[in-house]
UniProtKB/TrEMBL annotation:
Residues 236-255 have a biased composition (Acidic residues). The chain crosses the membrane at residues 149-173. This is Myelin protein zero-like protein 2. It comes from Kryptolebias marmoratus. GO terms for cellular component: plasma membrane.
């Protein structure tokens, strides 16, 4: 009865989260498809209940062929990367992870059909050394599937659209700047024109006022010349009139 009661207590604590079991949690990308002759990244990330110590972390990758057979060591990491020095993966495996970032990924260069199989990722971070392993199924094909082609076309189309959009914005900005420069040039040309005045018009403050006497000024309409002012008045003309007549009468009497 005491043993059963203890088990019930432990089960209850574990269910409520009070009692937590330490262990490494590993996450992988699952099934991966790669075109023959291309590079592929096998993604493997991990989380540890203990603080990550880069000097103690151990990462191991193993490979199990698709047609069956024994597992072979593929890659090892402990303070630094140890790629395979022999076998079909020689000079083909490269480190692509970050220990402090919880990344244990690797990259396979120029995949071949013989690379089809299961890739197993295992991480240890002492004292956190227990936990499940991560598995990735790699399938090497002649050409990309329709879904991958669609994703690739979408990515290329999005990149082209982004470039075109940027070019349109740049062209619009240049047009706006060109129009502003033209307007500024037009305004600078119109400003002096507005300030120009008729040189024949005299400024009121500089005008010379001419005062004419009561003498009349005659203007000959034929040639536009101004004749001498006449100083004779009406009374003088009337006085001269009779004198001329008298002279005429005298001449007649003498005759």
């Amino acid at each position: 009865m005491c043993v059963k009661g203890l088990w019930f207590v432990l089960f209850g604590l574990a269910a409520t989260g009070v009692l937590r079991v330490s262990g490494i949690r590993i996450y992988t990308s699952g099934d991966v498809e790669a075109v023959n002759g291309t590079d592929v990244r096998l993604k493997c990330t991990f989380q540890s209940s203990a603080t990550i110590n880069p000097d103690l972390v151990i990462i191991s990758w193993t490979f199990r062929p698709l047609k069956g057979g024994r597992e072979e060591s593929l890659f090892h990491y402990q303070q630094k990367a140890y790629p395979p020095t022999e076998g079909i993966f020689r000079k083909k495996i490269h480190w692509a992870g970050d220990v402090m970032g919880g990344d244990a990924s690797i990259r396979i260069q120029e995949v071949k059909f013989i690379y089809n199989g299961t890739y197993i990722c295992q991480v240890k971070n002492p004292p956190d050394v227990h936990g499940p392993v991560g598995q990735i199924q790699l399938r090497v094909v002649l050409s990309a599937s329709f879904s991958e082609l669609l994703v690739l076309v979408s990515a290329i189309g999005g990149a082209i659209a982004a470039v075109v959009f940027v070019l349109i914005i740049i062209a619009s900005c240049r047009r706006c700047k060109k129009r502003q420069r033209q307007r500024q040039m037009e305004d600078s040309e119109e400003a002096p024109r507005k300030e120009r005045k008729d040189p024949t018009v005299c400024h009121p403050s500089r005008a010379i006022h001419l005062y004419l006497s009561e003498t009349s000024v005659e203007i000959d309409s034929s040639d536009g010349m101004i004749s001498d002012p006449s100083t004779k008045d009406s009374s003088s003309s009337e006085d001269e009139g009779p004198s001329s007549d008298d002279d005429d009468d005298d001449d007649d009497d003498s005759d």
